[in-house]
Amino acid sequence: MPRTNGYRGVSRDAAQKHYDVSDEFFQIWLGPSLAYAGGLWEDGADTLEKAQLRKTDYLLGQAGIRPGHRVLDVGCGYGAEMQRMVEEYDADSVTGITLSEAAVEWTRNLAIPRTEIRLENWIDHRPAQPYDAIICVEAMEHFARPGMSGRAKTRGYREFFSRCRSWLRPEGRLVIQTITWGHRFPWDLDLLRGLYLASKVYPECNPSYLTELQAASDGLFDLVALRNDFDHYARTLRCWLENLDADRDRAAQLVGEKKARDFERCMTTAVRAFSEGWLHLHRLTFRPVPEPVGPARRFLVNNVLARDSLPTPKFLG
Ligand SMILES: C[S@@+](CC[C@H](N)C(=O)[O-])C[C@H]1O[C@@H](n2cnc3c(N)ncnc32)[C@H](O)[C@@H]1O
Predict the structure, then answer these.
(1) I need a labelling partner for 182 at 20 to 30 A (CA). Which of 87, 135, 210, 226 fits?
(2) What's the superkingdom here (predicted)?
(3) Which stretches in the chain have pLDDT values below 50?
(4) Total domains present in the chain
(5) Whose CA is nearest to atom 20 of ligand 1?
């Protein structure tokens, strides 16, 4: 298996510093589903709850969840996807893993049948049986930290893809939703200040580039569907800001004025970052490659199959 150079992703302390502040605070602006991810919007009148549900159904549809399936949710948060898989898709068993103690307690209290939630890093996950599908909704941003080289990031992501492949049935699907870096640099002091603040509010967080994910999954998975819904994140964030504004005093009571203001500023920056293309929102569907061939494949394809200067062998002519 590829090595990660010992980096295990965001530390539990850093994850809890962000996520374990107050369930009620998150509920104020995320809404009742507590979905902490970009929604999938339709044109015209739409609501945050509908956009979140549409996003969940899109991702679960891409994952091909059917009655009787066993599913893993990496970075399950407050369990909205897990609940839907069991109640609407009749999944047989759903395992959710997260680094947030608050999320574990919340989701356990929901007592959703046929689900198990664990305080566990995916690196430590050892499934008893293969899964029919794996979803990972906005956890990948935590798999690399600021300051890591592209090569080190890619090595870490490859470890993740490699593990997922070994946990999946051959016909299974891996579905990822993740914020990624766009191909611009924010030469703007206000935006830079906001992004700097975001690195404090979301400690040890560093999104990927799409190209890093492609390199990391190469030879392990085929990418079968890809969309970039950056503008959907901007719309989601605008709703989160409106919700926060509507109950601003209570939010500050729960987490303190400074934290409430920091979240607000980060979200305001993020609206700009997504609208202007500094950040993207990718939704990716992967299917496992039956037999990984490794680097020899590229050599053989480029030098044998794709060579036009060789005479065509009789049996192909
Ligand atoms: C932004 S939240 C998204 C939660 C949920 N998927 C949703 O859509 O609402 C990111 C989640 O990823 C989890 N996470 C981050 N790194 C992880 C890791 N290495 N192993 C397991 N969970 C992780 C966090 O604890 C958190 O629950």
Answers:
(1) 135
(2) Bacteria
(3) 1-2
(4) 1
(5) 121
